Every structure is written in C-alpha cells, then in structure tokens.
Amino acid sequence: MARKLLLEHIDVAGINTLEVYRKQGGYRAVEKALKKLSPEDVVDEVKKSGLRGRGGAGFPTGMKWSFLAKPEGKARYLVCNADESEPGTFKDRYLMTNIPHLLIEGMIVSSYALGANTSYIYVRGEMMPQIRILEKAIAEAKAAGFLGKNILGSGYDLELYVQPGGGAYICGEETALIESLEGKRGNPRIKPPFPAISGVWGCPTVVNNVESIAAVVSIINDGGDEYAKVGIGRSTGTKLISASGNLAKPGVYEIELGLSVEEFIYSEKYCGGMANGKRLKAVVAGGSSVPILPANLILKTTNGENRLMSYESLADGGFATGTMLGSGGFIAFDEDACIVRNTWNYSRFYHHESCGQCSPCREGTGWMEKVLHRLEYGHGAMSDIDLLVDVAKNIEGNTICPLGDAAAWPVASAIRHFRDEFEWHVKHPEKALKGNYGLAHYADPLPPVVVETV
Amino acid sequence: MSDKVKVIIDGISVEVAPGTTILNAARQIGGDIVPPAMCYYSKLEGSGGKCRTCLVKVSKGSEADPRPMPKLVASCRTTVMEGMEVQNITSPEVVDARKGVVEMLLINHPLDCPVCDQAGECDLQDLAFNHGAAETRYEFERRTFDRIDIGDKIQLHMNRCILCYRCTYVADQLTDCRQQGIVGRGDHAEISTYIEKAIDNDFSGNMIDVCPVGALTDKTFRFKSRVWFTKPVDAHRDCPTCSGKVMLWYKGDDVIRVTARKDENHEVEEFICNTCRFDKKATKDWVIEGPSRIEHTSVISSNHYDTLKPLPVIQENKALMAANKEELERTKKS
Fold this sequence. Notes:
Radius of gyration of chain A: 23 Å
Number of strands of chain A: 11
Structural class of chain A: alpha/beta
CATH superfamily of the largest domain in chain A: NADH-ubiquinone oxidoreductase 51kDa subunit
Low-confidence stretches of chain B: none
Oligomer: heterodimer
Distance between the termini of chain B: 95 Å
Largest sheet of chain B: 5 strands, mixed
Strand content of chain A: 5-15%
Radius of gyration of chain B: 25 Å
Strand order of the largest sheet of chain A: 8-7-11-9-10
Mean pLDDT of chain A: 93
Largest sheet of chain A: 5 strands, mixed
Number of helices of chain B: 7
Low-confidence stretches of chain A: none
CATH architecture of the largest domain in chain B: 2-Layer Sandwich
Strand order of the largest sheet of chain B: 2-1-5-3-4
C-alpha cells in the first residue's frame, strides 16, 4: 500500500488557502512541536525518521541539523533551497504551487528545532508565481498567529522571508545560494568552513531542500519511528518524482521509496508506460546531472535483481552500472531519442550555467559542449569520443562545487553505456543527421553474471 | 602540546604554525614540491581556490583522523592538521590532474607569447612549460574580447585573462571603493569596471603586478622592450603614500618601467602607489640599492650582469695576418 505523506490532500479544493489546509489537519505539527516538544526533541524525531536530503545529495537531514554550531550570542538561520533548476526536476515548484502551507509549516517546525528566528525561502527567480503564492501564504500564516512574535504563546519568534534569486542554476549549490542571498555574485564558497559553522552573514546556517522541509511535517505529526517504517532500508519515507520524457502520463508522483522502477514506468497508477507504444531506451533517474542508464540496466541491476526507486538500489553497481536517485527528476527516453543529441543538450546547459570561478568547469564545460555539437552534427572524429571521456575525467572532482561533477557525469556515462551510438554518429554522419540509431541492444536482457572460478 | 603542527609533504616533514595552508607549508620547505598557484596571493585576503593548479592529494588526513581525503584538494585553501601527509609531485594522480587543469587554462588563452608583453615574466608560461602538455587538443575558435583601457595607464586584454580574481581583490582591499568586478558567467565572465569607467585611485597600478598573465599591462611600458632585454635593480624613494620600495627596469640608461618588488613566489612584497609606478621614471628620483634578485631559471636572468665585462680579445698576430693577406692575393691572381 503506497502511502502519501506530502501530497495526501493535494486534490482537496482550495488546499492552497490556510482555511482549507487547517481543516485537513494543517499546522498540527506546529502546535505539537511548539507546545509539547523541545527543539532537541524535534531534531531527535528527524534523526529517528532517517529522512535524507531530497535536493540530490541524500545526506541525512537529522545529522545535518546536529552539525549546526551553536555559539553563544550568534543568530542561526534556516534557509530553504527552492532554487530548483535541474533539468528534469519540477517537484518543488509543484509542491509550492499547490500546497504552499505545507512548506511554511515545515519551515516553522524546522526553524524551531534549529533555534532560528529568521528564516528564508530562496526561490528561483523564474518562479514568480510561486513567490507570490508563498508570500500570500506567509501573510495568511502570520495573520493566524503561526509566524511573528510569540507563536501560539510559546515565546518563540520567527520571521519568514521569501527571497527571489536571479535564476542561476549555480545558486542551488548551498554556498552559492548563501552568497546570492547576501546580495553578492552567486559564486560557490570554498569549503571549509561549511555553512553549519559559517553560513548566512557568517552565522551558522542550515540549507535544506523544499521537499526535505515539507517532509518534517509528517515526521512530527506521526513521529520519526512511524516515518521510518515507510520506505525501504536506509531510504525511508516517500519521495516526489517528477517524471518527464515520452511517458504516457508524465507528472509529479509521490512514491514510497522502494517501488520498483519497472512498476513506476509501466503501472497505470504512475507513468502508465511509454507513450504511443514506443519502447524504453534509456532513463535519467535523478535529474540531468546523474549518470544516464540504458533500459536494461535501469530495470535490473547486474545481479539480476529488480532495480528499485531508492538511494541504494539506484546506486547499485557504482557509476559503472548504476546511477543516483538525485533530486528525483525521472526522464525517460524512448527508442526515437538520440542519446548524442541529448548529451549535447545537457552539456549546453552546464556550459551556460557554469559560474566561471574555477578553471576546469569554466573551460571544460564549453569544450565538451563544442565537441558534442560537432559529433551531433556529423563533423566528429573517433578520437573525439575518447577526448570527451578525458575532459570529463579532468573536470570531475577537481572543482570547487559539484557543478563540475554534474557536468561531467552525464557525458561520461552516456559514452560508457552508449558508445556505439556515438561511434555510429562518427561513421555515418549523414544517417545521423537524417535519422537516429534507434533502440539497438539497449533494452536486451543483461547477460547472466558468470562467476569465474579459478 | 607544542604550538606547531607537523606535516609531511612528499616525504619531507616540516613544522608549521597551526592554521597554515598546505601551500604555505610547502613553500616553507621550498624547491620543486611547492605546488604552483595562479590565483592564490598571500597578500590578498580571500584569494585562492579558483585556478585548481595547486591541487594535492591528502593521503592521511591527520593523526586523529588518518582517513585520506576523498578528492584532491586545493592546497592554497586547505589548512594543515597534525600528522597530515600530503602528496604533490609524488602522486601520479596529482600530476595528471594538474596537467588537465593547465590544459583547461590554456584552451581559451591565446598562445601568442611572442607578441605578448608579459612573456618572460608570465606565471602561466612557466606553468605550461613545467606542468602542461606539449600540444593542445582544442580545435575550436578561442573566445575573444576587445581591449579595454582602464584609465590612461592600464590596459585590460580579457583574451589573456585566466579569471584568477586577484585584480578584483586588489581593487577591493587596497582602495576605498570597489571599482571592478566580474560580470557575466562561465567562460563568458570578464573582469570589468562599471561600463568602461576608468579606475582611478592611488593603488590601481598594483593590479598589473598581481596579474599572473598578460591581461593587465602597463601602458607606459607596453611594447617598449622585451623583458629579458631589461635590467632590474632594486631602488627606493621617500614616498608619502607607499613604502617606496620598488624595482626599476633599465634599458640602457633609461628607466622604462617601475614595478613593486616580487618575492620567490612571484608575489609583491609591498604594494606601491601609482606615483612611484608611473610618474617617477628618472634615475635621479631614486636611491639605487643594487641588482634585483632574479631566479636563475628566469629568462630575465639570461641578461647576466657579468656579461657586461668586456670579453677577452684574441691577441693580434701580425705574422699570421701578413701570411693571410699574402694567401688572399695569391688566390686572386690565379
């Protein structure tokens, strides 16, 4: 039985207003936390829940909170990262548009747990409607006494601000976000110090994704232990997946972690299979920056087990045969999709979004984009494929922030798994311009693992 | 517990003050284990971490936590810990990554050293020579910009810039107001002033000295001479604004350039003011201290002072000359 924790009441009319949200049991978590629990209790509940950061890295939220430095006389801040701009990910926007009070409720509880009296929601600049929705919701919450001075008579004060960003992908990186929030150029900071020690205005800061903060609400309502029962293994709870690509029913789905990838794609409850009777060729499971996998590897791991939508199962096999859950941007490609073109498109994005601070990413993203463009348009050479692998390797791990890795992984993985399609582009440039490589062997069942005995 | 921490870099141990970065610890050892640094500048707060040429491998985090660091780290921004073990030139991984970074730095840098004013004293040239590959694999058009005059004395040529951000730190930290910064993003980012507004303050000339490449050049010196034809001498004057300690670059009897003195890490010892730099170009303005110390590997030192001594002349041999003359005439006749 798949449980819904975040989007339980999403279909209730008027859920975006405080009145309806309250009727559906909204702001219970605030009442419970502020009246019955101490901040430490809230942190403990989140720790018990096993909630992992929903922004992409999957770092346990409770542990992140416990790292927050608490020096005397220094303010602490909670910043919500709503700078969702990863290609293929649109879950936070959906959540903020339809059920803004869930985020605000989560912000109040989380700020209380961290002892922050000022908190920010940093929203990507392009999401102007969502900024207005959030501001309206904040005004409603404030009028109802959930924000401002002495909330619910508990003596706890909280001001919540919405800060529009300038629309740069890099500002989703937490230190770049903090720079941008402070009104500076959004360049990632060099770590250490980590934001938990020195973040916004040099004060200890926690930056969490929208979905992570929204998940805190059900953790407090039901208790951390109860939340930990949902999901599988160390991937607890539910996850919003934004499914896109040539699926019959693309959209935002809340799944219980541990659902099999096959069920997610083909079940009528979720994506309903591929559109127009096409066959699945490849999947990017967690937003554009995670490695792309061919259909056979995304459905089954190399051990022949079903691959599940969970942090562990998707990462099974490392980068050689696995990928990452990332931010849950699930992009499916059918047999008509050209992997070379898609890889070029991604690298065009990373080239455009590189902040230009450190040299491997600044120069390397542009280089990869140019080489991929050449390959896609029939001017490539065989040596270009190895060149791309080498450039990706030189970027990966050598940059200040993970944008370099995010730019290198899709290129490296596309070549790792779809090398013959790249080679086909070099050998048959005219065919590549007119048609595409098709499904080839990418959906063939994996050969059984042979254990060699000596 | 002593107030020094012990760190081993490439097998050489050194004791440094806590809070020292790996790069500075390596500089205390000296020699070829010092990682190259294109953006870090010890006199400019907040610099470093950007160019990634100083990447090193930390094979042992510290005595307390001996795990190696998962990625290569920028040695200019990573502080040492007690018992830390660092690999620089002894790690093939580091050498390889550095080669990759140098390649990245060069793909959009015009390889026109023969016509660049910085040639001979260019950190990027040294870096590419010492750590880079011999050939480029980049086959696309390089990005280009128009030259910009920043005031009447300084020229900015963004084509050559490697975005080390040093000059923006000079503007921020030496002067009263922030006059320049980075505009644009990614490989289109450029150093800029407010819509080509001239930078006008007493210390603006220092950005020429901190620039590791030929992006910021002294317009009063541009194309006057190749640097290896000049002779640097240390000199000072009693300056009301700065320390007045400079290097004068002579060509013949003329001072054709004045710069701040640089130490062995190619960093300015003390920043100098624009009056010293641009307006005092006569020997009479200065008290000469003596020839500047130039590394023996530098092309500038090929202009040895001792070559000014007259070369030993071969003694005249009248008998031989007469014999040669006779020989010449004989061949003409026959």
